[in-house]
Amino acid sequence: MAQLQGFISDNADIHSGLISNNALIYGKSSIEKNAILDPFVIIGYPVRSKTKELISKNEEKFSIETRFDRISSGSIIGKNCHIRSFTIIYESSSLEKNVETGTNVIIREKCHIGSGSIIGSSTVLDSGVEIGKNARIQSSNFIPPKIVLGDNVFLGPGVRFANDKYPVSSKLISTVVEDDVVIGIGAIILPGLKIGMGAVIGAGSIVTKNIKRNSVVVGRPAKQIMTKEDYEKKKRDYEK
User: Fold this and answer.
1) Are the C-beta atoms of residues 78 and 98 closer than 8 Å to each other?
2) For residue 150, is pLDDT > 60?
3) Strand pairing of 112-113 and 130-131?
């Protein structure tokens, strides 16, 4: 069985690390010290507008890897990052040190991920998403453009954010999730909201309005049921 051949751009800045022979690294990407790139990882994948332009150009003498390399601006992978198999990181995105991805992760263009964060398997970060330090994004999350997640945020599996009040409109709006927020499995966050620092959102909730700091909300629509202090006490009792 034929094996996919890797590709490393001549313009890439590669430091010491473990890079699979099957990895594809396009453009002026930077791979910092001690990063690990598993088999079938793609770094610096060019944006859709650029790949569409290739169709109209007669460059059959060049391989697709060479053509992608020529149009990609590359991405930045910080030191000690571990990018697991079948992850695609589009151009102009940057990962700070100690970031990890699961398998089958897609990180679109112009995303930024803070140091120590973990992005779970089969998660999609759409263009321009910002994630702070030490976030824990569990598997199968979709985070669309205009979403900002702070430091130490936790998302359970299958959380969904919306960014358009009247789909499909030309106006996307931001939701900001502040530091230390916990969002349970399967929650839905509607567009244009602010989730206050330290808030907890219960599993399966639908959040339709701003959430106060250090409040615990559940339900459809989500409503406050206790304070963060009450929640922490219940958690301590549960863990005994």
Assistant:
1) yes
2) yes
3) parallel
